Predict the structure.
Amino acid sequence: MNYFFPSTVEEALGLASGASNPKYIAGGTDLSLQIRDGVFSPDTLIDLTCIGELKGITETGRGISIGAATTLSEVADSEVLPSTLIRGARLVGSPQIRSLGTIGGNICNASPCGDTLTPIIALGAILRTVSPSGLREIPAEDFFLGPKKTILKEREILKEVIIEKQFLRGSSFFKKIGRRELQSISQVNLALWLVMDKPEGVVSRIRVAVGSCAPVPLRAVKTEAFLEGKKLSDDAIDRGVAVLLSEISPVTDVRASLSYRKLVAGTFFREAMKEARDDSEA
């Protein structure tokens, strides 16, 4: 197997074009196991960790750009990112995994229970990619096609995650349950972003995403539409929970049952909405 360390995106694309079965690698915390287990058998690994433009968290005129090779530890320690993404990154694996693993790798691994996937959907993130055909921008909610499947084309690289300015205001939340909170695979996770008009306490904008309840992370658009323009009374929150539970169709598997996942998703949503209401009244 050939192993390369390109210093630019252009060099990485050139190496991929010249290989018959290449794979891009950064932290390698998932890919190395998949290669070991025979899921993938690449003839060439192209390591992206030496490409400066793929690393770091940068404030721009558009909002915030997170390079795809930025480690999960860097995301977790950020002082400028929304709390839902910081919290999600903090709950990925162990400290050792977070110091190696990258946000791009976590996204491209496309696990339905990935702890950064629901936050980027709730934040309306744009995923910017590059390939020999050029650049394109993909809304995070359209990026995932199924378990371990994304919209990325062959030899295409996820370059950066863009969080636009409008999503840097308001409140955001992330909640997760596994067999234990840390170093565990999510049985359910939920990310939420919203803006409330003060002092009325009316929801002006909201985005909700639920993970580990479907083949891909789900954006709860009906729940969002129901709550926008409403004051967060206990009754409105309860009715919002009912709409959310009608939108998700969890599976029963070795980690959790359908009924348990629905119970947890509803509980998480209710808790997040009440926390948002309390914040707006503070």
In short: The radius of gyration is 19 Å.
